[in-house]
């Protein structure tokens, strides 16, 4: 197999190919990142491994080629020595690919026709529109001040003016705040063909990696949140969390549908905007492994690179499912020509549990260059964010942002990444529910605490219950008195375990609440604890989350041992002072 | 950094080094597995990456060296071009390492003194005994029939006769069934010095990878179960499961203590026997990455290879914690000189969710040679075993073994890898508890069902509760009638969530059981469901496990939608036939 382009994507592709001993040749200038991890055998005959999987057995890639991946002659030379040719960058000479394909019979993935459409961003937009894929309204714009002013009038400002070609990582984009910037924009964007996009005032950026097999079968990775800074990918969080339980699935459907409209096999990165009304617009598609999919190496059953290989070699696609509960990816960007800031960040990462550093072996650093990335995995969003904190702190101040790795939960306020939701029907239940909060504080398990009334805020309750799982909650503790419908009604609208705390009212000593909470009909369970015993509700929540998080279970074991020690202390006290003088402390 | 030995361990070490762009040179004959994934820069000056972490910044490894790793001259040449030298095999010339260290000042890890002790298996045993590490009784044996017969008389038979040197993967081991085999054993073991080990009739083989830092700090990976076939590692299961809740921790302590007795940094593989009385004996120690630690690449926060690099470069050690709930490793052994059986196994693995194939790039296959391995990860032991099944099925019949990947749970019988334990105080509770089993069958969630009585089998109850978590259970459903102590008492002896089902007795309609189960004191919660409603107990168990297993939560969502559809069907029926003719089906 051969790859045109020897940067970090080619490097990670080659690292995946090594696992299956798929021979690979790289075309690029010099000892580029990808070439460093593929050492072709000295004699050509020895380079074809016999142990590779059946479908790829005929592959016979040889040494690397030193030359630009834009050169038709070098592309042809590369094609001559392999059976399958792929690219790690869409800014290639498509005609050269087609010529090489004709001349050598090499398979090229993604299909040159796909690359041709995608490398012209406006052609890509028109293609998507023609196939019914939702995108921001776009129009081709001539390179004149009048034309730019015209589109400002038509679309309003702000407005995104973009180069149609050779644009990536924010290069070739200009944000027009007003029509008066028309000349400035034209100057900044140089001599490339342009188009304009109506401003998408998104609430969040989403990305989905989609793999397309030779036969057109399509599978997608989980939707992730992407965070850009200066138009370059800064952070990725997987999986996407949202109070809208369907947004992740919707994003995957949109991305899969978009990729189905293209030809050829391989992995595609689909970047999308989530709009305030919940609509999803496709922003851009990359016909190759993508920065927003780096996290898959450590976090998914099959990495985007392995799946790209499987796809283009006609092998069965691998499972894209997450194998860890939560993951984040932080790009390591050059800040200057010096490597010292990069070293600082890497040194910080080496001290972070669950962090994996990927350096790309680029010989030179420069401001904004992608030099590596760090993947962080953890057992919860809160854990991943906490692990991310020292990494963001090692960045220059303008790249830090507490919003993405907020400090630990503050006493009396909800965590932004809770695992447990404590809700109660009325503020009068607060004293009864506070002990639950104290227990979760003790275990340092992130939670939120709020008022949700089944009878007085029925809509809020429904929205809370429906969005609980997709926001990342794992348990809901619901306290309610009297008729006490809250726990059961929440349980009816979430698949999560709901722990019900019967709150003692004035008339029936909480027995009414108890029966109302515990006697649920078949089909919808509520885990009921003793009357007013929110302590036990929280301890149950910890056991529930601990069932899938062994480290938490160990903390629970310690808690139980401590309880035993406490009682043993009372045993000793009783023996020491005798029961006549023993003072019973009120719980 | 340099590595003597270019086999699969060196290859995986080099693959980890690439992530941190740590320059690495390999000494071995020819284009060995490790050399294939490290392509040194054409000019020496360009080979030192500037982006590597601080402590390793001075490293300046250059090209590979072609020669035997047993050759002093080649070892010296290797040492000359690097700052840190490590080995992937303990059968090296220790004096040559020491000479190279003296002459060049290169750091060698593991310490030559450690390699010297470990490469002589009897010296290793004596060293461990001297440091109080538990091992099987051993004795040096002269190479005479009389001496062998003498040790048979002393230790009894069967007995393990071993070469002291150059023994691994079962080579150099002879199992003496009787003293009559003395001559046969001497012939088989050739001309090496020998020693004998008293037969260890272990119940299980355990391994722990231990990492030792430059300063002597020691961290250990989770204990795993290893399965050998013909004395070669066949399967590894992580983490170790046991009804003894402390055995995993005990194994780690024994392994850590053993590694503390050696000098130098790096990762050590400690193989142990678990004896019937719970004692743990150290069998052998390898001063390097080990086959039993391959699983760490996909399953742990930090792989054994990365941790070996971090240790020998003086960088902070990485977290050894599992990042997935369960993992297994299957070695790919050559079966003949043909690659076709290997291809078959790899093809099978490519269709298995959560499986990652590692091929080593060895040019030739032969019977018993380690050609690669497959790691399988999953959300539970049952899932991992199910995924392993098609892989074991692709092996020749004599390497298949249903015990390690048993077929799916049979109706009416407990799963060997349950996530839920259904227990009841009396067989008279069975009709009440059966609906729970039906629900778990419906969700295909593995469970066990048995009788555990708090009052009549108190010891059994305590053992059951104490071993529940370490056996891999995540939820216990306990049904009990009358005084109904079972759920609460189990909850007092396990950190797992316990779901209590009050069983209706003859006198008080189950209200007695309900109060007894739900009114637990502060500190020990029981998740109580409605009287006799074991259906809801199982649904709650699914929600609890689903809290940490998103795919299960999706099944629960579907179940809830199906319930809704069922009721909507009744709505339609009621409208269609009218309520005068509507027949109410008994639940």
Automatic annotation (TrEMBL), chains A, B:
One of its GO terms (molecular function) is phosphoribosylaminoimidazole carboxylase activity. Pathway: Purine metabolism; IMP biosynthesis via de novo pathway; 5-amino-1-(5-phospho-D-ribosyl)imidazole-4-carboxylate from 5-amino-1-(5-phospho-D-ribosyl)imidazole (carboxylase route): step 1/1. Keywords: ATP-binding, Decarboxylase, Lyase, Nucleotide-binding, Purine biosynthesis. It catalyses: 5-amino-1-(5-phospho-D-ribosyl)imidazole-4-carboxylate + H(+) = 5-amino-1-(5-phospho-beta-D-ribosyl)imidazole + CO2. InterPro entries: Ade2_fungi/plant (IPR016301), ATP-grasp (IPR011761), ATP-grasp_carboxylate-amine (IPR003135), ATP_grasp_subdomain_1 (IPR013815), PreATP-grasp_dom_sf (IPR016185), PurE_ClassI (IPR033747), PurE_dom (IPR000031), PurK (IPR005875). The keyword Lyase applies. Pfam families: AIRC, ATP-grasp, PurK_C, RS_preATP-grasp-like. SUPFAM superfamilies: Glutathione synthetase ATP-binding domain-like, N5-CAIR mutase (phosphoribosylaminoimidazole carboxylase, PurE), PreATP-grasp domain, Rudiment single hybrid motif. Residues 44-62 have a biased composition (Low complexity). Residues 125-314 form the ATP-grasp domain. Residues 35-63 are annotated as: Disordered. Its EC number is 4.1.1.21. It comes from the Eukaryota. GO terms for biological process: 'de novo' IMP biosynthetic process. In the C-terminal section; belongs to the AIR carboxylase family. Class I subfamily. This is Phosphoribosylaminoimidazole carboxylase. It comes from Calocera cornea HHB12733. The lineage of its organism: Eukaryota, Fungi, Dikarya, Basidiomycota, Agaricomycotina.
